[in-house]
Amino acid sequence: MKKIFLILIFSFAFQLNHCQETYAINGETLELKTEIDGKLDLLWNIIDGEYRYFVRTENDNIIELKNTRDEDNNYKEEYKSTLGELTGMSTDKLKLTLYSLRSHIDTYNASVDSNYTSSKTKRSVQLRLGISGGITNNPFVGNPDNKKTPMIGAELEILEGHGMQRHSGFLQARHTFDSDDFPYSTTEFSLGYRFRFVNTETFSIYGQVKFATLNFSNATFIDESDMEVDVNETSFDIPFIFGVGSDIKVGENSYITLIYGELFAAFLDNQGNFSTDIAIGYKFNL
Q: Which CATH number is 126-285's, of 2.40.160.20, 1.10.1140.10, 2.120.10.30, 3.40.50.1370?
């Protein structure tokens, strides 16, 4: 699991840094990502905590897409007139977001260049990768002293396309560690479903259920002869484990996630302790 965790961190760092180039624009030196490469390019990055978007024309002019405020604090939406002049397309419904700009410029490039390969990301599904860490009292395992141990996890969430998605499935791997006070550990792989019953642009609250789990567990105990015994066990269950969680948007494609993963189960018995299974993590769209 430690290797998996390190690979996820490395992959995330690679995603953040690939395809960036340095540009000198109006006296600023900026590192920008190329989102679309065509007759009209789309460049962007998060600079000093602010999303900034640029277009590059065929003669290499780079123009920033701005949305400043006037003296009455109303948005002037300069980006709409800029793109309207460059593309000749309606910008009435255009928003200064990566997805909206990408769709607009992609449509323009496809209309003026028959050899252009569309880079639209309107897919039937959207993928989201997450890592997390927290504590658990292993609520479905005998734990008479209600000991808490650390856990780490990773998941691939599969959402129903773009926009305000309510439904998603997930593949999850997590490892709960043992301790001197509670010598039990398990690595679990699970398949589940989420429904976002509160779903806004900035945060969501969802219920989830884990349909199927595969566990590789290790436990140490003292037998009737006062001998220490190690037990390794592999188990597959269809437990219907229910939980709740929340995703809080912190960037164009990234989220902080809070999750109470194992509240109760339909086909597993709680072993006498109220569930403590709480994690905090980070997710980003692929």
A: 2.40.160.20
